[in-house]
TrEMBL record, chain A:
Keyword Ligase: no
InterPro entries per the UniProt record, alphabetical: Cyt_c_bgen_Ccs1/CcsB/ResB, ResB-like_domain
Species of origin: Virgibacillus indicus
Pfam family, one: ResB
Keywords: Cytochrome c-type biogenesis, Membrane, Transmembrane, Transmembrane helix
Localization (cell): Membrane
Keyword Amino-acid biosynthesis: no
The protein's name in its UniProt record: Cytochrome C biogenesis protein
Residues passing through the membrane, by range: 72-90, 132-154, 223-245, 473-495
Membrane topology: Multi-pass membrane protein
ResB-like domain sequence ranges: 70-526
UniProtKB/TrEMBL annotation, chain B:
Transmembrane segments: 6-29, 41-66, 78-97, 104-124, 136-162, 174-197, 260-278, 301-325, 340-357, 369-391
Protein name as catalogued: C-type cytochrome biogenesis protein CcsB
Species this protein is from: Virgibacillus indicus
Lineage: Bacteria, Bacillati, Bacillota, Bacilli, Bacillales
InterPro entries in UniProt: Cyt_c_assembly, Cyt_c_biogenesis_CcsA, Cyt_c_biogenesis_CcsA/CcmC
GO cellular component, one term: plasma membrane
């Protein structure tokens, strides 16, 4: 290690640009911060020796230098920015709209956005934010955060602790704000000191050399907020493990009870009622706007639920359930139990619970029922043996009937929203079935020769509620990270580190000042504190680089 | 007078008062004779601005009382509020730096935004279930305040650019400056077109297929671009010249595209007229007025506004947003387009703040960046709502 001894006697580590104690520029190191040829000193990190600027031999040195560069950091941010923007051009896979012709990404993007959609899909941009390269980009930003911060914080912290009030001539004269006054009396200096203290400066006077300092803690703001960001990134890593985070979705019919998914059978949830309310169309306040929206503006989605906890599940046996919560779930008002939170997330109105049919003779004008049966649509049986000797076989069941592209009957979903059946009716003592096709508003006799006709006489309906179930132990980490980030960013942005130096020179003084931001503010401080004295106002010597 | 009409009157009052205040701020540079007089004009300007701001606060509170929820729930209400936060941020910055010329540019930007807002439906609308939360106003007002403060950075940057860019020869820089000014004029184009056709009560209906349904679109401007595969069903209305390209989707894509075209036409005519009258670039025409402003101070303000606005924006746009999203949907981050663009805004200003650490990024480059940041904010406010559909696609 080549320590550098300054003429003030302080021993500086290798690579120091400005002596830690007196601030005298160290010969031969001025190129590091671009001071050579410039009138003003580069005061970044107080001219301390930063590892990244000093060592550049091994691979570790080079990697360290690479990631400690703000330029690299900014490039990483810009790349993340561009990548994020690209991902928002077309919807991500999870936001493919429900009314799309096909929600299969392979078809959707090309069908809707043509060649660009196809490219978007083939490049994997439909899941951009969870792609490996996006993750790596974010991780690199994390690495850059850590290295940048360490590279600067450690030497800066040391230098600010070691700084002396007595500073070298050149250090003062090469500050951006500087003035020299030929004759200054002691009273004037005392007056100045007093005023500086009054403005909240900590004033150190070492044999007439004065350092007035304010808001040094704001220098740590960036490092504090970087710690916050790193905690957030680590939290995101934790959240990707099932121990910290699970996310499930469950559809529950009104009146039904389901095991809460993801809880390993510990909790059961019952949908007592699903309620959807719309705003009153004749409402005085909102009437006009509701009319514009087409008359239906929802006001409330709500599921009334009861939650049960299973007591020690015995394998194979029905668990004994204990009711632990009875509550209403609404948008913005999830319920919590155990480590789970349940959110109102979706609904399906008017699914068919069951349908009742009767059989009558095709020719009978009164359609007098010869036999009747009810199909429970939540668990249809394959065959129904009726009281009066008829037997009905369910040949086909389409819970959500539609005609597909080939004109063939099919089911769009597995939910009984538009049920249709192919029924094989065996008359008493007959082995030859008659085939009927039945659905809502449809009753088709395939052959036209059926002796018996089936008709729908009744049905019951229910609503279905969609609930999201989340467990998230990573939240506290995000909260802590975000809080630390906010503290750091406020600390760094809303306060400034201001320093004013006074160096006696013959009869008079040299006055210089530096701040990490808000030069306007420090100038005002000086203006105010030197008023009523002979001391000259500082000149702004900034070289605007054109 | 009921609350609602009182509230509307207050907004109108605020608008007019801001307009008058702008004139007074203008007088501060027009008047080169005496320093004393110059101070008076600035004082009247800022007093009027505060009065206008109070009137707008009155609008905000009474509308809140009338509707029962914070008036930040649709595009009109949100943009109006954004205009208000720009004025508020300007007032704060004015009291720190006492720079009158800032008002001459900040207030017109706020005026443009408020006028733009009032082109959208202004009825009081009920809140859909997902918006029924206290976080609505906590989140939205904080984001908007952050964006308002960041906008002041743009205003200072814009003044810097007009003041500093060499107008004696045509260059890339003069061209880009004209692009910024032209974009602001496009807003005027939109406002003029909308107002004119509103007064004419123009209306034409189209039917167009969407998935398996047939929807109707109510055009309030003559259709240059009709809906994709749409048919005109109003008699005596202008037939569209061409159809909106099929890849533009979303509710009423055709109508929005058509409005955009009209805004470009009107805005461009306006710009050309201005150029013909001035006989030079608009930037060049304004430049002499800004002789007496100090570029260093403008640069300082542009940076300071970001330093103040960035934490506020982070708090409102990312943290509060995440808390609300967690409460409403059970996920604090979902890569919804609006969220993504809030993150992009955040990335952008983070890059800006880091670049300020390097030499050579002060002054003009900084000013260009401030303009870029404002472009991103406006994109998130307007384009993301109108083009990229998502959870925030209210209004």
């Amino acid at each position: 290690m080549n320590k550098i001894k300054c003429e003030c006697g302080h021993v500086n580590p290798e690579g120091t640009v400005l002596c830690e104690a007196c601030g005298k520029p160290i010969e031969g190191n001025q190129h590091i911060d671009g001071n050579d040829g410039k009138k003003l000193l580069n005061m970044r990190y107080d001219g301390t020796a930063r590892r990244s600027q000093t060592y550049n031999k091994s691979i570790i040195d080079k990697t360290w230098s690479f990631f400690s560069s703000v330029k690299v950091g900014v490039w990483l941010i810009v790349l993340a920015l561009i990548a994020s923007a690209v991902g928002s051009i077309f919807p991500q896979e999870m936001y493919i709209p429900a009314d799309a012709v096909s929600r299969d990404p392979e078809i959707f993007y090309e069908e809707r956005y043509g060649i660009f959609g196809l490219i978007f899909y083939q490049l994997g941009f439909h899941n951009l934010y969870s792609s490996w390269w996006y993750m790596i980009l974010i991780a690199l930003i994390g690495v850059s955060l850590v290295i940048c911060s360490l590279d600067r914080f450690v030497p800066l912290y040391k230098a600010l602790r070691k700084q002396k009030a007595k500073r070298h001539d050149t250090f003062l004269s090469r500050q951006r704000l500087f003035s020299e006054t030929e004759v200054v009396s002691d009273e004037e200096i005392q007056k100045l000191e007093k005023k500086l203290k009054k403005r909240g400066y900590k004033v150190r006077n070492e044999e007439g050399h004065i350092l007035a300092e304010k808001g040094r803690f704001s220098r740590w703001g960036p490092y504090v907020n970087h710690i916050g960001l790193i905690i957030i990134l680590l939290a995101a890593l934790l959240r990707s493990t099932p121990f910290f985070y699970t996310s499930e979705y469950v559809w529950i019919r009104e009146g039904a009870q389901e095991v809460v998914p993801g809880t390993k059978g510990e909790y059961y949830i019952e949908n007592k009622d699903f309620i959807i309310e719309n705003y009153d169309e004749n409402d005085e306040r909102f009437g006009e706007a509701i009319k514009q929206e087409g008359g239906m503006v929802p006001n409330n989605y709500q599921t009334n639920v009861a939650v049960y906890q299973a007591k020690e599940a015995v394998p194979g046996a029905e668990p004994e359930l204990e009711k632990i919560v009875e509550d209403n779930i609404q948008m913005n008002q999830p319920i919590e139990f155990g480590s789970y939170t349940v959110y109102q997330s979706g609904y399906q109105l008017n699914e068919f619970t069951n349908m009742t049919f009767k059989i009558h003779e095709t020719d009978d004008q009164n359609e007098e029922a010869l036999d009747s049966f009810t199909i429970d649509l939540t668990s249809p049986e394959s065959e129904y043996n009726l009281d009066n000797g008829f037997r009905v076989e369910v040949g086909q069941y389409y819970p959500d009937y539609y005609l597909d592209d080939n004109g063939e009957p099919a089911s769009e979903t597995n939910f009984p929203r538009n049920p249709a059946f192919v029924l094989l009716v065996y008359p008493p003592d007959s082995e030859k079935p008659e085939i009927s096709f039945l659905g809502i508003g449809k009753n088709i006799d395939a052959t036209g020769e059926n002796q018996y006709k089936v008709g729908i006489t009744d049905f019951e309906m229910h609503d279905v509620s969609g609930l999201s179930v989340r467990k998230d132990y990573s939240l506290p980490f995000f909260v802590v990270g975000a809080a630390i980030f906010m503290i750091g960013v406020i600390q760094g942005m809303y306060w400034q580190h201001r320093r004013i130096w006074i160096r006696p020179k013959k009869e008079g003084i040299m006055l210089a000042a530096h701040t990490n931001k808000n030069w306007f503010g420090v100038k005002k401080d000086i203006e105010n504190t030197i008023s009523g004295t002979n001391i000259k106002m500082v000149d702004d010597q900034q070289e605007l680089e054109e | 007078m009921d609350l609602f009409s009182f509230s509307s009157t207050m907004l109108y009052t605020a608008f007019v008062v801001y307009l008058i205040a702008t004139i007074f701020f203008g007088a501060t540079i027009r008047d080169k004779r005496g320093k004393a007089k110059k101070g008076t004009a600035g004082k009247i300007g800022i007093t009027l601005t505060i009065i206008g701001f109070l009137a707008q606060i009155a609008y905000f509170i009474t509308r809140w009382m009338a509707s029962g929820h914070a008036p930040v729930s649709n595009l009109f209400e949100f943009m109006t509020f954004f205009g208000m936060t720009i004025v508020f941020a300007f007032i704060i910055i004015y009291f720190i730096y006492k720079l009158s010329v800032l008002g001459l540019f900040a207030l017109p930007v706020a005026l443009l935004i408020i006028a733009y807002a009032s082109m959208f439906p202004t009825d009081i609308a009920p809140l859909i279930p997902s918006l029924q939360s206290h976080w609505l106003y906590i989140h939205v007002t904080t984001v908007s305040l952050g964006q308002g403060i960041l906008s002041i950075s743009f205003v200072a940057g814009l003044i810097y650019l007009i003041r500093q860019i060499d107008q004696s020869v045509k260059s890339k820089r003069t061209t880009w400056l004209e692009v910024i000014l032209y974009s602001l004029i496009l807003f005027v184009g939109f406002i003029i077109t909308t107002t004119v056709f509103n007064m004419m009560n123009y209306s034409a209906s189209f039917e167009y297929p969407s998935g398996n349904n047939v929807l109707t679109s109510e055009y309030t401007m003559p259709a240059i671009a009709g809906p994709t595969d749409g048919t005109l069903i109003t008699e005596d209305a202008m037939q569209p010249w061409f159809e909106t390209p099929g890849w533009m989707h979303g509710v009423d894509a055709g109508k929005k595209f058509n409005t955009l075209i009209w805004s470009f036409i009107t805005g461009s005519i306006l710009y050309v007229l201005l150029r013909l009258i001035l006989r030079k670039r608009i930037g060049a025409a304004i430049q002499p007025l800004l002789k007496s402003t100090k570029p260093d101070l403008l640069d300082e303000i542009a940076y300071r506004a970001v330093a103040i606005g960035f934490p506020v924006f982070t708090l409102g746009g990312l943290i509060f947003a995440a808390i609300w999203a967690e409460e409403a949907w059970g996920r604090f981050w979902g890569w919804d387009p609006k969220e993504v663009w809030a993150l992009i805004t955040w990335f952008f200003y983070a890059a800006f703040l880091h670049l300020r650490l390097s030499r050579g990024w002060h002054g003009e480059k900084s000013a260009w960046l401030a303009a870029g940041g404002f472009a991103i904010i406006m994109f998130n406010l307007i384009a993301v709502n109108l083009i990229l559909a998502g959870l925030h696609s209210y209004a």
